[in-house]
Write a structure and sequence with these properties.
The protein has eleven helices and 17 strands. It is an alpha+beta fold. It has two domains: 164 residues, Roll (2,3-Dihydroxybiphenyl 1,2-Dioxygenase, domain 1), CATH 3.10.180; 195 residues, 2,3-Dihydroxybiphenyl 1,2-Dioxygenase, domain 1 (Roll), CATH 3.10.180.10. The strands form two sheets. A nine-stranded mixed beta sheet has the order 6-7-8-5-1-4-3-2-9. Strand 7 and strand 8 form a beta hairpin. The relative contact order is 0.13. Bound molecules: fe (ii) ion. The site of fe (ii) ion has 6 residues, from strand 10 and strand 14.
Length: 376
């Protein structure tokens, strides 16, 4: 797999007009960044990394940066009323504003994408401090979400210029989250192909998988999904749109509560999902409940697996298999009052797919919760 990735990478460096090293950070606009950072530390085991705010000379916002493995989350709140950040929170609730991508050349990334029709969000800007310089630029994607390109090869600081180390004494231990496997966007009716072609045309991504309402439907609801991937396969963005069903689908519910298109879930990888999920549960993270019947059919569906079935059932972890191996996954409940953003924990054992065989069980679980919310 490593070799394959390297080959794809080498191939991509000659052909790919937007080479991306990986996800740089994900910034959420939240109403209380301090409490949000505390939540991600305590519940998810993120470690405090950096902060910027009044004491660093900012007067409009405060941000806390937390890290676990290669995953950096930036939690930002406005310091006054009437700000763009505040409007974003009013419209969407707490949610993902920036999916930042680590590139070697942020100016080129901006030129290549905007010349292909990407709408400018941030003209290339050079930020410096005594640790060096970072260049950033950015374009808009679906809804109010943006991509920021980060060039940090000449920077040694803790996060970005303007940020200082954040060193609270309270440091709950990590839970084994390693990197972002994929991030899913929900878009409006009939908009999936618009955004698929945006990622193809503007960012040079390709479609690695596609699901229609026959794959992803239950008695009540349906959705369609296409998985977009960049040249070296490090960035994967599935895009969902609702499909006609008997009742309101989870994507429709999302769009209604989020006030339009946005990030639905962040899937984070672990090498030991049993240990990771066990720790998350101990710390109060709540997951979608999967009926016991799911496990009765599991072995006949996915065959032999290394994990103990009883342990999987106890934790509610799902399993799916494709041609290359299998994967284990579990989904949190939405992490805010609006039924919008949630997390997925995923462990891949060869499989490169997204758990298609689990969609039905999963959506039925979501529908039971929608029913409880009265939004189905
Ligand atoms: Fe996912």
């Amino acid at each position: 797999m490593e070799t394959l990735q390297n080959e794809r990478q080498m191939k991509s460096s000659s052909e790919d007009f937007l080479p991306i090293n990986g996800t740089d950070y994900v910034e959420l606009y939240v109403s209380n960044a301090l409490q949000s950072a505390h939540y991600f530390q305590n519940a998810f085991g993120f470690q405090p990394l950096a902060m910027a705010g009044l004491e660093t000379g900012l007067n409009d916002r405060e941000s806390y940066v937390v890290v676990q493995g290669k995953i950096r989350l930036v939690l930002t709140s406005p310091l006054h009323g009437g700000t763009d950040i505040g409007q974003h929170i009013d419209l969407h609730g707490d949610g993902v504003k920036v999916i930042a991508l680590w590139v070697e050349d942020a100016r080129k990334a901006f030129q290549e994408t905007t010349s292909r029709g990407g709408k400018a969000y941030m003209e290339p800007i050079r930020e410096t401090d005594d640790q060096g310089e970072v260049l950033r630029s950015g374009i808009h994607t679906y809804g109010d979400t943006v991509h920021v390109f980060v060039e940090r090869k000449n920077y040694n600081g803790v996060f970005l210029p303007g940020f200082v180390p954040w060193n609270p004494e309270h440091r709950p231990s990590p839970v084994g989250l390693e990197y972002i496997d994929h991030m899913v966007g929900n878009v409006g009716w009939n908009e999936m192909n618009t955004w698929v072609s945006f990622y193809e045309r503007v960012m040079g991504f390709t479609t690695m998988a596609s699901f229609d309402d026959k794959d992803i439907s239950t008695q009540y609801t349906a959705l369609m999904s296409k998985v977009m991937s960049n040249g070296n396969g490090r960035i994967k963005f599935p895009i969902n749109e609702p499909a006609e069903g008997k009742k309101k689908s989870q994507v429709e519910e999302y769009l209604e509560f989020y006030g339009g298109a946005g990030v639905q879930h962040i899937a984070v990888a672990t090498h030991d999902i049993l240990a990771t999920v066990g720790k998350l549960k101990e710390r109060g993270v709540t997951f979608l409940k999967i009926p016991g019947t799911y496990y009765e059919e599991l072995v006949s569906r996915v065959g032999e697996i290394d994990e103990d079935l009883a342990e999987l059932r106890e934790l509610g972890i799902l399993v799916d298999r494709d041609d290359e191996g299998y994967l284990l996954q579990i989904f949190t409940q939405p992490i805010m009052p609006r039924p919008t953003l949630f997390f997925e924990i995923i462990q891949r054992k060869g499989a490169k797919s997204f758990g298609k065989g689990n969609f039905k069980a999963l959506f039925e679980a979501i529908e039971r919760e929608q029913m409880q919310r009265g939004t189905l």
